[in-house]
Known about the structure:
By secondary structure, the chain is mainly α. Among the domains are: 36 residues, Zn(2)-C6 fungal-type DNA-binding domain (CD2-Gal4, Irregular); 72 residues; 171 residues, no CATH class. The chain has 25 helices and two strands. Strands 1-2 form a two-stranded antiparallel ribbon. The longest helix has 36 residues. The N terminus and C terminus are likely disordered.
Amino acid sequence: MASKQPPNKRRRQVETCINCRSSRKQCDKGNPCRNCLENNRKCLYAKEFPYSHVSREEQAAILERLLYETRGKFNLLKNYVEKNAIKDWESQVVMASTKRHMSRNIRLEADMYNYMRRYTASWLVQVSTPDQPEWRVQDKVFKTIFSRNGFIINLMGNLPKETIPPVPRMLENTDHFSIDIARAMVSVEEVEMMIALYNDCYSFSALPDFISPHFENNGDYDLLLSSVMTLMLSHCVNLHAMKVDNHQVLSHAFYFHTKQLRDARVANGIDIMTLHATFNLMLYEAENGYLQQCAMSRQYMAIMIDMLHAHYGNMSVWQQNLLRHLFWAIFTADAGSHNMQMQEHVLCAPYMHVHKQRPSDQSLQVVDKLKEEYIYFRCRLAENIREIWKGCYGVEAPSVDGAQVKTLEEGMWELYRELPSWIKSEDPLDKIAIETCEGYECFCGQPNQHSRTHPICHRSLVEVWMRRLRYHFLVEWHGTWLFLYQIFLPKPGDVVQLPFIRCMEHGKLMVDAMERWADDPDFFDCYCYPSLRSLLVASHVHRYLLGSEIPEVRQKGYQLLHQLYGIIRRSNIYHMYKNTEFILGMKATFHSIHRDYIQPNDMGQHSMDISTAAANTKDADLHMFSAAAS
C-alpha cells in the first residue's frame, strides 16, 4: 500500500490589522475592524511575502527594486507637500499624521536598506563564472536612469597622466651618431628577429605579414624597416628581455632617420606607407614617454587619415584592404587607451564595417586563423568601447538611460557568445588539441603546422596565439565591463546597485584571468603585456571598494588590489611604469589600508592574517612579491 504524502504545511496568516498591531490594541479581525471604524482609519491587513518560493538572490533583487520604487514615491509625495505649502487646519492634521507614519516607515526603510547592503555583499564576494544564473539575476533591477559619477569622469580625463614619469622626457637629435653606424651596430639576425616579432606578435599591429623585402623596388622597404626598428629596439628590450647593446641610442638614430625619409616622401604626396611609418613612430613615442612628440605625430596622422579616406575610391583592391587594416589598427590602439581620436566620418564609412575584418575561410595554417580571429575580436571590442564612450562618457547630461546601458551590455555578451568554445572553457591549454576544436577541423592532418616559432621564447606560434586569445583578450573584455560601469558607481556607503555588482564581478574575473596567465611562465611577457588602461581602470575600481562601509566589500577590494599588484610586479611592464603615479598610488594605498582600514573590530581573523605581511614591512609590496620575470 502506497504511503500517503504528508500534507503541505501552510504558513499561519497574520490576523491582526496593521493599525491595531502598531497601536498594540486588540483587533476583532473584522473588515474593517471595530478600532479602525471608530477612529475613521483605513483597515489594512499584512499579507505573507509573495516571493518566498524563489531563491535568496532573487528575493534580494526584488527587494532592491521595491526599495527604489518606494523611495521614488516618497520623494514625489514630499515634493508635492512642499510645493503646495498647505496651511489649513485639516491639512495640518493630515500632515502630522502622515509625518508620524513617514517617520516610522523611514526607520523601517533604513533597517531594510542596511540589511540589503550587508546581505547582498555577503553573497557577492563569492563571484561565479560568466553565463551562470547569478549574473542574470540583477538584470531584473535595471534602473530607469543611471546617474554618472563626476569624480570618475575627471579621473578618466587624467588617465594618461598616471603613466607619465616624474621627469618629462624629450627626444633630442643625435647628429653625431649617423644612421650608417647604427645599422652597422645591429646584426642581421637581430633585424630578422625584430621583423618576425613585429609581424607575428606585436599587440597593436592588426596587419598581415607586412614588412617584406619585395617592397624594396618601390622604395618602401627602407622607410618601413626604419620605423619598425625604431619601435622594436626599445620594445624588445623593455618587454621581452632581449639584449641589444645601446638600444636607446640606436632607436633614436633610427627614429630621426625615419622622420627624414617620411618627410621627403610626404613632399611628393601622402600614401599608406607614410601613415604606417608615422603610426610606428607614434607608438614608440607613447611607449617611451615622449608625449610632446607623440601629440605632434597624432596630428600628422589625423591629416593623413583624412586625405587617404578621401582617395579611398581611387585605390586598387590591394591598397583598399591594406588601408582598412591600418585604420583598424590605429583605432584599436585608440580604444585600448580609451582615447577615441579616430575621425567619426572615417569610422562610419561603409568600408570600415567591422564584419569586413572577419577571419578568412582560406587560411593555410592554424596560426594564421588564430591571428585573424584575434584581430577580428579586438576590432569588435574596440567598436563596443566606442559605443560605450559615445553613450556614457561623451554626453553632457548627468545621467544615462538604463535601456541604453542594457543595449551596451547585450553587445558585450553577443561578442562573448561568438568566441570559440575553447577560449571560454576552463580546460588547460596544454590539454587542448586545436585541430579537433569546432571550426578548426580543416587543419587536421596538414603537414608543417607548427613550423613557425616565436623569435624570443622559441615556442610554437600556435601556442602563443592560443594564449593571447585565452588570456590577453579576456582580460581586455573584462576591463571593458569595468569601463562601462565604473562611471555609474554610487558613492561609497550607498545601497548596492547594479554598477557596483558588475564592477565587483568583472574585477574579480579579470584578476583571476591575469593570475592564470602569470602562472604560465613560458608565455607570460614573452609576446604581449597586460593592457595598461584595463589595469588602470581595475586599480581605480578596487580602490573604490576600499571606501565601502561594508567590511566584506572592503576586504574583497583589498584582496583584489593585492592580487592585481602582485601580477603587475611579476610582469616586465612594472619596470616601465614603476616611477609613475599609477604604481606610486598603489603603494600609497597599501600603506593607507594598513593605517586606516584594517581594524580588529571590523575584520575577521582571516583578514588580519592577510594583512600581517603588510604590517611586517614599511614597503609591503616589495616584501610580498618577487621581482619581475626576465
